[in-house]
Design a protein that fits this description.
It contains one helix and seven strands, in the order H-E-E-E-E-E-E-E. The longest helix is centred in the N-terminal third of the chain and has 9 residues. A four-stranded mixed beta sheet has the order 6-5-4-7, with no helix packed on it. It has a three-stranded antiparallel beta sheet with strand order 1-2-3.
């Protein structure tokens, strides 16, 4: 199935990223919002957060973090609100 993204969808997707600062803290950016997610991870190095109306699943890695994002929350998942 194919579908077209409008310019806002493309901009939103490109604006999603996670960076590590010089102190080793992890920062999630989405649209114009930015949040420190370093302390959001559980004992399994996973985090479920909401930022800017989007839902993120994060997995800490040796190099930083992998993530997936969703328009709607996953059923049964408790998201930490970072807004």
């Amino acid at each position: 199935m194919n579908y077209r993204l409008d310019t806002q969808d493309v901009a939103d997707t490109l604006a999603e990223n996670i960076t590590k600062d010089e102190k080793g803290r992890l920062w999630l950016s989405f649209q114009v919002k930015k949040a420190d997610v370093t302390d959001s991870f559980d004992e399994n190095d996973r985090a479920f957060v909401q930022l800017g109306g989007r839902y993120f699943e994060l997995k800490k890695t040796a190099d930083g973090c992998e993530w997936s994002s969703y328009d709607d929350p996953q059923e049964g998942v408790d998201y930490q609100d970072l807004n």
